[in-house]
Amino acid sequence: MLRSLVGSEMCIRDRVRKVAPMYVSPSPEMLECIHKFYKLPEFPIENLVVRAPNGERELRVDPTANVSIVSSEVLRILKTKSDKVCIVSVGLRALAYENLTNGWRIVYEAIPAFERHLIKCSDRVVTIPKSVLVDMLVGGKLKQMLLPNISDPAIRTKFEDLEMGAMLLRVSTTESIDKDAITVSAMGLRARSRIQLLVDHEEIVGLKHRLGVTEEEVASAEIRYKALLESDKASREAAEAEVANN
């Protein structure tokens, strides 16, 4: 048997020989991410669950842990279900482990669940013009942009002032970033010397479509990116030559 329940939010099977996974409450480290790092005191943490494999009833904190957000109805089913029913997946993925900070972060697909709370309470929200997002899209496999290469000093300073870790990017559909700008949200990462787009490859096409990114804009960004690479290469070669001459 394989069927969907509560708006495709849960997938169940008949239990056949396998030990059913349990769904338990998040660890203190996971909750600290929401309360202290993102500063979201009103987020409904009671609707977060973590899949504990192999029938274990206590959570072992592991970077591969599957942290999901579920509705109250699904939460009720999880608490009252029989061990004869094997629930193999549940809810919407909410958090993932971030190696850079050795902590947990909000994932791209969970933006609808967290966005309102982030905008209201968190300082980890940055509004950027579409051109910055396009520059990140062409910025190599990591879809990144070095902080010194951000031309707008106010936006660059905003990123530099942020503690390292994931953040919500509100991307304007134009070059305007005032309060009335129409925005599309994505997740980004503030690393040591760069910002990186945290969007799965299969989501990129949809993100570009919602922002109205044109082929001409991508082509212009690629030209800028190649120019920056050539400039960086020239600077390194000049520095190496100076060292060699000394």
Descriptive report:
It is a single chain. The protein has 246 residues and is of the alpha+beta class. The chain contains 7 helices and 13 strands. The chain has helices spanning 28-37, 72-80, 111-121, 130-137, 153-161, 201-211, 215-245, and strands spanning 3-5, 10-14, 22-24, 48-52, 66-69, 85-90, 92-98, 103-106, 125-128, 144-146, 165-172, 183-190, 194-197. The strands form 3 sheets. A 5-stranded antiparallel β-sheet has the order 3-4-5-7-8. A hairpin with a 4-residue loop joins strand 1 and strand 2 (10-14). Helix 4 (130-137) crosses helix 7. The protein is elongated. The relative contact order is 0.12.
Blueprint of the fold:
Elements: E1 3-5, E2 10-14, E3 22-24, H1 28-37, E4 48-52, E5 66-69, H2 72-80, E6 85-90, E7 92-98, E8 103-106, H3 111-121, E9 125-128, H4 130-137, E10 144-146, H5 153-161, E11 165-172, E12 183-190, E13 194-197, H6 201-211, H7 215-245
Helix pairs in contact: 4-7
Which properties best describe this structure?
5-stranded mixed sheet; 246 residues; 36% helix; 5-stranded antiparallel sheet; alpha+beta; 13 strands; 7 helices
What structural class do the secondary elements suggest? alpha+beta
Poorly predicted spans: 1-8
Average pLDDT figure:
86
Tell how many strands the DSSP assignment holds: 13
- Helicity, as a percent range: 25-40%
Number of helices: 7
Give me the side-by-side strand order of the main sheet: 3-4-5-7-8
Q: Report the β-strand fraction as a percent range.
A: 25-35%
Shape: elongated
